[in-house]
Amino acid sequence: MLSDPISDMLTRIRNANRALHETTTMPTSRMKVEIARVLKDEGYIKDYRVERGEAFDNLVVELKFGRNRERVITDMRRISKPGRRVYARKDRLPRVLGGMGTAIMSTSGGLVTSRTAQELGVGGEVICFVW
Predict the structure, then answer these.
(1) How far apart are CA 131 and CA 128, in angstroms?
(2) How many C-beta neighbours within 10 Å does residue 85 have?
(3) What is the reported pLDDT for 99?
(4) Confidence of residue 2 (pLDDT cuts 50, 70, 90)
(5) Residue 7: how many CB atoms within 10 A of its CB?
(6) How many Cα atoms are found within 13 Å in the side-chain-facing hemisphere of 76?
(7) Please, which residues bridge with residue 106 across strands?
(8) Verdict on whether the full-model pTM lies above 0.70
(9) Residue 89, class by beta-carbon neighbours within 10 Å (0-12 exposed, 13-18 middle, 19+ buried)?
(10) Cα separation of 117 and 120, whole Å?
(11) Domain 5-63 falls in which CATH fold?
(12) Is there a contact between 64 and 72 (Cβ–Cβ < 8 Å)?
């Protein structure tokens, strides 16, 4: 069975976060870079960069921790999977932990948070929840 690249990315970030690693590396794709951009904009990660490799490029995600090494990311959950896509209409956008978390969505205007999707008045595919 082929693994879902987005689930793989979320798992790598989740595992590195639990092990208190500073960075995690994975093969890159445009979708993964966009997810990393949204995570950085929302303040969940410190930074991300694409490192050129010989065979393929790597996405390096720098994790963010609090003052006493407490984790910024509590958990991440993949919502829409290849076998079961989940979509949200503009009037039924998801809320994560009553607004404390973030839902990342794929819309016609690119990857955005559910808050931004609400401001734009668009719906789309719910990629994942982060809190």
Answers:
(1) 10
(2) 10
(3) 85
(4) low
(5) 15
(6) 25
(7) 111, 125
(8) yes
(9) exposed
(10) 5
(11) Ribosomal Protein S8; Chain: A, domain 1 (3.30.1370)
(12) yes
Taking phi first (over 0 means left), then psi (-120 to 50 degrees means alpha), and beta for anything else, what does residue 31 get? alpha
Spell out a b/e string for 48-57, using b for 16 or more CB atoms within 10 Å of the CB, else e: beeeeeeeee
Amino acid residing at 122: V
Angle between helices 30-41 and 5-18 (to 10 degrees): 40
Q: Which pLDDT value is given to residue 38?
A: 97
pLDDT tens by residue, 51-83:
999 999 999 999 999 999 999 999 999 999 999
Residue boundaries of the structural domains of the chain: 5-63, 76-130
Which token pair is 76? 């991440």
Task: Judge: domain 76-130, CATH 3.30.1490.10.
Answer: yes
Residue 70 exposure: Cα atoms within 13 Å on the Cβ side:
4
